[in-house]
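Example 3.2
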Amino acid sequence: MLRRKITGRLLEWKNAPERLPFLVEGARQVGKTTAVLDFAEKNYRTVYNLDFFRDPSLVSIFEGSLDPSAILTKLSVAFPEIRRTDGSTLLFLDGIQHCPKSWTALRFLAADPRFDVIASGSLLGISHPEEVSFPVGYIQRIELKPLDFEEFLWAMGIGEETLGYLAGCFGDLKPVEPFIHTSMLSYFSAYMTVGGRPAAVDSYSRFHDYSLVLGIQKDIIEGYRNDAVKYAEGSEKAKILRTFDSITSQLSKVYKKFQYSVIAKGARSNSYGGALLWLRDAGIISFCRNLSLLQLPLAGFAKDDAFKVYMNDTGLLVSMYEQGTAQKIMTGEMGLFKGAFYENIMAQCLRSQGFPLFYFSPSDSLEIDFVVASGSGPCPIEVKSGENKKSKSLNTILNTEKYGVSHAIRFSRNNIGEAGGILSLPLYMVMFLKPDESGDAFPSVSPEEIRQHIPV
């Protein structure tokens, strides 16, 4: 069983004095059902598992009265072998999108102390009838994303001692011991190619056979295509598929700003914008918006008409290219296209850490890959696929008074270092870069202040 961070969130929820129904959302095959059932088995005596996809007849439980007592009566009929235990009973609504009226039922279930409620699923493709309302204010919700790099390391057998050592190096800005540094870079390359889908990670951890991983990834990609055909309406089906197929070409460009013309000749935002939003809402892609100015709050200066598109799982992106791409990434032979994969994995990692995605490109000759908020202002981030320390754009930003930027981060294959206001970090150390409660990454690049934001 893969170790997931959501287990800690679920435990916090269960131990809270008052618990609203907990909604776990996410893209297909990110491990929602497995994570909830594992948590339920370890923390509840009684579990009603209502899988609406596998057993559509369970939908009828939510027809008629939505009073909790009436629902419990129907559950006792549907599951006669289960004996309910007050105070230790969980109602798990799995695939809640297949039972729209259960959304409304959450409002009433929230007030009943006899059992806890967890729901899982996606809003993708749901069209609620007018009489069905989403229970705003009556649920807690979380998006379960693909495994992040730290979870991937757990799956590979990397223990807390090693992770604690790396966290200490990050906090003290102390170079990592060479053998460990090289090993972590190898793991990061593996993470790029395997991605974060639990089935792919589990297979790789057991067999280390990428051909098996590729088969899993191809199945997930095909599932996305089937979703477009199943849930989208009319001409949107073809537009979604064309837009999805264009992502590899979009990221292979030198300038990766999303261009509708890459999808099809004459394509415009008014005809293909809906397809992009569909892919985002399905949890397949994320937008990274260009900033008009390097000022806080970043979202206030984000352009709506200038953005990049990244896949939320870099392993799936790799599987969309030709055979042998993964092997080239592992051996460092990617050539001109390697920048696309390194930018995508950094976008995936930053999003997993809770950062919104922004970049800064005030001209064709100047582009900063990512920008995050810090206590002292915007913090530019540059991603290098190798050990090249040249950072023309970063140096221009740091040395041009009008931008008002005092520090920046460069992620590369190099070890930890600092020079000229640029903090150099190994690619794998993005797992320690986390926003504080205000959304800032860290107050400055000094070891003392960075250390405050390392998770204990």
